[in-house]
Amino acid sequence: MNRKLLAITLFTASLYVTSCTEDDDYTYGVWERRSDFDGVARSDAAGFMIDGNGYVCCGYDGKYRLNDLWEYNIDGDYWTQRASLPESAKCNSGVGFSINGKGYITTGYDGSNYLAATWEYDPTINEWKSKDDFPKARYKALAFAIGNYGYVGTGYDGNYQKDFYRFDPSAPSGSQWSIMNGYGGQKRMSGSASVIDEKAYIFCGINNGSYPDDLYCYDPSTDTWTKKRDISDSSDDDYDDDYTSITRSGAVCMVIDGKMYLATGESGSLLSTYWVYDPETDLWNNDDFTLFEGSARTAAIGFSNGKRGFIVTGRSSSYYFDDNWELLPYEIEED
C-alpha cells in the first residue's frame, strides 16, 4: 500500500471532513507505530495512567508471569523501567487504575491461584505499598476510577462474576473496599470499561461462550447504573446490522475527545476492526475506518490521555507482542 496522509479539519468531535481530494478510495484513521515497548513481549498485563503517562505492569510472556513496571512518556515517545512489584505479586490478567497521582493493581492469576492482593504505586518515590486485599479473588475483571475512588468488578474465579466494589485508598486499613449495589448487567470476564465526563461505561467481554451485548453507564454523583441500548439492538433505524460485530472479549478501549474507541480483541477469531461510541447519541460508528495495522491480537493494553490513544503488547495464539501503536483518528489513509 502506498500510504499518503491527508490532514482532516475537525469541525466537531464527530465530523470528519476530507481535504482536497477527489479520490474516494480511503479510510478514516491512521495507525502510527511508536516506540516499541522496552519490556519483554507479553499479554494480559495491567495498566494505568498517571500525569498523562502510561504504565504497563505484570502480564504473561508465554512461559513466565511477570512483575515488572514500565512507564511510557507519551510526549517524548520513550519507555522507562520503574520499580517492580514483589516477587510474590507476579501475575497475569489483573486490573489497574489510578487515583490522585498513584497507580493501583489488584486481582489476577499466578498460575495456580486467583489473586486478591492490592498494590499502590507512588511515582514520586518509585515504590509499591500493600493495600487491603480485594474482597473476592479473581482474574480478568474490569476496573476504572472516578474522582477519589476506584471501582473493580466482574471477572472469573471458577464462576463468572457481576459484582462490583468501590476502593477508597484513604480509608483505614481493613475498610478500603466496600460492595456496590445496583449493577444489573450480565456476568462477564475480559470486558471493557471507559470513563467519559465522570461517568463509566461497561460493555463487551465473554460469558459461558457468548459475548454480552449490554452496555451500562455508572454515574457516581447519584450512585446509579443506567442501562443503555443493547449493542446489537436492531429496533432503531439509527442502528446498523453490523453492530453485532462490536461485541468481543479482550479488547482495548481508549477515550479520545469524549468518545470511546474500541479495538482489537476476539469474537471467535481475532479482530482488527475498531468502533467509536458517542455517549451523547448512544450510537456506535465504524464507517470506512482503517483496520488496526499491527498484527490482530487480544489481551493488549490500551491507554489514552483524552487526546491520544495507544495499543501496546497483546498476543495471537502463541505469539506475544511488544509493539506500540497510536491511532490518529482525524487523518485518512489513502490506497
Describe the structure.
- The model is unreliable at 1-22 (pLDDT under 50).
- A hairpin with a 4-residue loop joins β7 (65-73) and β8.
- The protein has strands at residues 5-7, 9-12, 15-17, 26-34, 46-50, 53-60, 65-73, 78-82, 95-99, 102-106, 118-122, 127-131, 142-146, 149-156, 160-167, 177-180, 192-196, 199-203, 215-219, 224-227, 252-256, 259-263, 274-278, 283-285, 301-304, 309-312, 315-316, 319-320, 324-334.
- 0% of the residues lie in helices and 45% in strands.
- The chain has no helices and 29 strands.
Write the layout of secondary structure elements.
Elements: E1 5-7, E2 9-12, E3 15-17, E4 26-34, E5 46-50, E6 53-60, E7 65-73, E8 78-82, E9 95-99, E10 102-106, E11 118-122, E12 127-131, E13 142-146, E14 149-156, E15 160-167, E16 177-180, E17 192-196, E18 199-203, E19 215-219, E20 224-227, E21 252-256, E22 259-263, E23 274-278, E24 283-285, E25 301-304, E26 309-312, E27 315-316, E28 319-320, E29 324-334
Antiparallel strand pairs: 1-29, 2-3, 4-29, 5-6, 6-7, 7-8, 9-10, 10-11, 11-12, 13-14, 14-15, 15-16, 17-18, 18-19, 19-20, 21-22, 22-23, 23-24, 25-26, 26-29, 27-28
